[in-house]
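G., the chain you wanted modeled:
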Amino acid sequence: MARKYFGTDGIRGTANEGKMTAEIAMRVGMAAGRHFTRGEHKHRVVIGKDTRLSGYLLEPALTSGFISMGMDVVLLGPMPTPAVAMLVRSLRADLGVMLTASHNPFRDNGIKLFGPDGNKLSDAIELEIEKKMDNGYDQHLVASEDLGRAQRLNNAVGRYIEFAKNTFPKHLRLDGLRIVLDCANGAAYRTAPSVLWELGAEVITIGTSPNGTNINDHCGSTSPKAMCDKVIKTRADIGIALDGDADRLIVCDEKGKIIDGDQVMATIATNWHENGRLTGDALVATIMSNLGLEKHMESIGLRLERTGVGDRYVVAAMQKLGCNIGGEQSGHIVLSDFNTTGDGLVAALQVLAVLTEKGRPVSKLFELFKPYPQLLKNVRYNEDIDPLKSKHVKQAISDGESTLNGNGRVVIRKSGTEPLIRVMVEGEDNKIITNVANDIVASVQASAQSD
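Predicted structure as tokens:
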């Protein structure tokens, strides 16, 4: 069943337009509040946000919706997405909400929902909430004496700082490490620098002066050049860049070279395997992770289990398989020993633990495999047309797979947030994968025009 509001990671859109208005936010609050009101106890919802100007628009609208359903609201202010997932469990809340559009520009915003277990909601629950948003969401308003209340959790920042610090091995410190940290002018601008400093590092910060409109603006994980340049200029040991809601990270070495997210996952998984901490004998990643990562895991007697794109699918597979490390090539890394969702800071701490234990430069530690050449192309299409149903597109994909002859992969999927077909081709030869990708892209474009 097609979804009207929710995409691959909550609801997202341009603030004060379409799916991201105060009215929609209030309806989300009412519908989700209704769905998660179970039992006679006083129900509670936790709301966090990143630093976007539109947070001031959406936060009170959501709050009103929940209060109208009799739920008490705990407001966290600007906090990382993983902090919301953690505090939902810590406060024994019935629901958690994060207002963020992650790595998108400030004009966008979004609504991510977490269940009482700290996990993102399933597709089925999101569909139920959508139904309630459009049908009778206002038919279960509580009596005036049963309205909820709202209050701010003043020590939310301190709680998350202590939580994050406790994920770092107790016998280690970061003394002597010089770290460039880019917080993207986003949700982690207060928490992440404090954690690294309290663990002993010298911290050189970028992107810690949010003004409502500069989140992800030439900074953070989607614009890591500033971090890389700063690492070289200050002769730092490592660079760490978070995104707007701090659930993903990008790492660069002491030479300013970006370390691919697959290499970061491989390094953490290998280290945990060596230390007897890895569970499930596998790393869970998405269909976008490099074939080189899969070969590396096989070489050390482990498996790479693949899922669809989206960290909630990674988490679901981790739970099913009993694995405690999973993630996405883009930098979302889930460490279920600590949290239920991607946490850029906690993942960075595991990277720093390996660096501290091994005592070798980042450039020598985080190149565990040679990645296969990988090409990604995006094709915009009219949402009224589905090019992937075209027999010509299906034939182009089949032909591409035959050309690769088992020495590569073709992955075609729709974006969950934009009208784009994402075409990824991976193989041993750059020329071959380029030809395969171009043929598929041309077929998709021709199909969209002919239909």
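The first helix runs from residue 22 to 35.

Shout if anything looks off.
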